[in-house]
Inverse folding.
């Protein structure tokens, strides 16, 4: 059963598990289960995805329950009237805050402007030897993408040399292998923890929060991060 965060006659939001595709994809033809069909079967009616999350990204995922509401919300996403907040665990100690304005090229070789603001929440250093050093450093950040390009956060954090832990291919393969061998980490430490927008019909502000998953919590414990407010 999918965890439902909010539901009325117009929209529904879930806490998407890591590893679940939103819909069928050319890039993941091995998948047999999708969020659209799972939610449709769970609530007994058709659903329309308003936005997307990567397969390995967990967190708030919003659907419309009819085509008219879908258009309203698509327009609001396009005009940046919806605020998306993500938690990510990065390699190294990032700047305290930064706006990354770095164009990205999509699969059709079209270059698009992409902007991400983030601020660092906590630092961590653990006794995990890497690159001839006795310890490894990481940090927890909150990221707010102003644009919605494919793999934007993963590519932007790699661009500033602080890749998201567990990200493949836009990450550090050596770090991912280190965590796989030492802690059996297979997921990616990126979670869409909050969505803020005005309701498409009532225009009332909604703030939807999604708790982190078990694997994100486990990594937080290993790194001695305080994730209590997100659990």
């Amino acid at each position: 059963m999918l965890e439902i965060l909010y539901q009325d006659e117009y929209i529904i939001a879930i806490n998407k598990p890591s590893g679940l595709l939103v819909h069928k994809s050319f890039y993941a033809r091995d998948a047999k289960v999708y969020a659209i069909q799972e939610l449709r079967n769970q609530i007994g009616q058709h659903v329309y995805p308003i936005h997307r999350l990567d397969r390995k990204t967990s967190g708030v995922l919003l659907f419309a329950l009819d085509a008219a509401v879908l258009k309203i919300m698509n327009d609001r996403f396009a005009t940046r009237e919806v605020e998306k907040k993500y938690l990510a665990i990065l390699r190294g100690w990032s700047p305290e805050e930064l706006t990354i304005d770095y164009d990205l090229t999509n699969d059709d070789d079209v270059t698009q402007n992409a902007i991400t603001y983030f601020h660092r929440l906590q630092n961590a250093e653990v006794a995990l030897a890497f690159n001839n050093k006795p310890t490894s450093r990481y940090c927890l950040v909150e990221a707010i993408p102003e644009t919605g390009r494919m793999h934007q956060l993963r590519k932007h954090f790699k661009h500033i040399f602080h890749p998201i832990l567990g990200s493949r291919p836009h990450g550090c393969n050596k770090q991912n292998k280190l965590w796989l061998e030492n802690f059996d980490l297979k997921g990616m430490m990126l979670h869409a923890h909050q969505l803020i927008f005005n309701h498409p019909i009532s225009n009332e502000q909604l703030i939807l929060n999604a708790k982190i998953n078990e694997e994100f919590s486990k990594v937080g414990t290993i790194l001695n991060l305080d994730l209590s407010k997100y659990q």
